[in-house]
Design brief:
Distance between the termini: 15 Å
Helix content: over 70%
Number of strands: 2
Low-confidence stretches: none
Strand order of the largest sheet: 1-2
Strand content: under 5%
Order of helices and strands: HHEEHHHHHHHHHHHHHHHHHHH
Oligomer: single chain
Shape: globular
Number of helices: 21
Mean pLDDT: 89
Structural class: mainly alpha
Amino acid sequence: MNNLVILPILIPLLMGVILIFFKDSKSVQRTVSVISVGLMIAVSAYLTYIVYTEGIQTTELGDWPAPFGIVLVADLLSSSLVALSSLLSLVCLFFAYQTFSAERERNFFHPFFLFLMVGVNGSFLTGDLFNLFVFFEVMLISSFILISMGSKQYQLRESLKYVIINTVSSMFFVAAIAYIYGVTGTLNMADLAVKIGELEQTGVISVIAVLFLFVFGTKSAIFPLYYWLPHSYFAPPAAIAALFGGLLTKVGVYTIMRTYTLIFPHDQTVFQILLIFGGLTMFIGVLGAVSQFDFKRILAVHIVSQVGYMIMGIGIFTPLAIAGTFYFLAHNIIVKSALFLFAGVAEKITGTSHLKQMSGLLKTHPYVGWLFLITALSLAGIPPLSGFFGKFALIIAGFDAGNYFVIAVSLATGVLTLFSMMKIFMTSFWGEVKMPDPQAKDKKVGSLLIPILPLVALTILLGVAAEPFMQFSLELAEQLMDPSEYINSVLNKE
């Protein structure tokens, strides 16, 4: 048992509670938030190192043994995602400090920002389905608050849709939990893997698996459950949109990876559904992005398209496909968040996010334009950036498995992704200077680029140093495809 596993949850929880009492002190809130996120990064990075060198780590809360008590589990997948989410939260926090009003910070932004990280990290680390539901609710309630901050009419309207859809999804989540508990008598994920493997009621298990797919598919925004996302993620300011776009749908993708590699690995029907929905999600998502003429809307719709690649990788369900899915997921967390922040920079300069109302940013702010181009090309999968290697692994895995049609769809999606990114670049950054704000060309935004630079550097690093990262992804995939180590670590089996 390693108590280090609980710290990425405990640190933001305690600090968030403390900050509730200091809502009128901006300096205290900022200092405590930065210290909290810094500690999360340090702890999660060290935890990932421990897991990589010593194996899966667990913590039994209250010293109750699994499967009877609550257990937290850190394997390569969960610990690395906690480290990535912690890094992203620091980047978004520094960007928020430069773009948020003092009033927004006083309205409990910092506590709910940290509570959101409690929900995200807890979802990654929990080894129990009911506690996954609890952490989902912590994450969603915090996101409800953050997405509606500002009280603009558009924000409130989209927040209401977001709340209703996710509340319905949560109701189905409770029903699925009750159903699986009624069949197996347990909610511990490792214990479920053992008991479902011994059951002969394949029809009942398939129904439960599809019900969970509906729940997690709604959280991930896969076809046809994606309709809530584009408008909801367009509504909040750039720092919040970057955090949501980088993390929240990825929590849904993580739960699909965890559930269907650990609990339902033998249900081939679900993997066929995932493969089909993955192809539909990526293609319909990219068509929506191509049709848009707003910087943030294009990026919001692209979230749907990029999730499709990850779902396709899970549906292929081979070690290389799972490795490619993780690589692509990590890449997308980095790149998608950076692009939303670039949209925030462009909006800060021009006062608008509509492409037809801005032009010539490359002449007035060249560093913004070239850094955006690097990130946009990475999203489209252009070598030698990180997006290429994630897609390459998925395409090779698809060819090996004989899934030629969905691979053709993924290649077409990549071309359309490049087209939509070039539309942003050619319209907003290229051309003659044309901006609604006459003072736009004189606005200094160098400080806004500082928190984005680590993300741009990471997408370059994940590309030019792809071999060690892909090796890590392959080891992670082997751990997921053979869940015996996970089961033995949780249930204390020899």
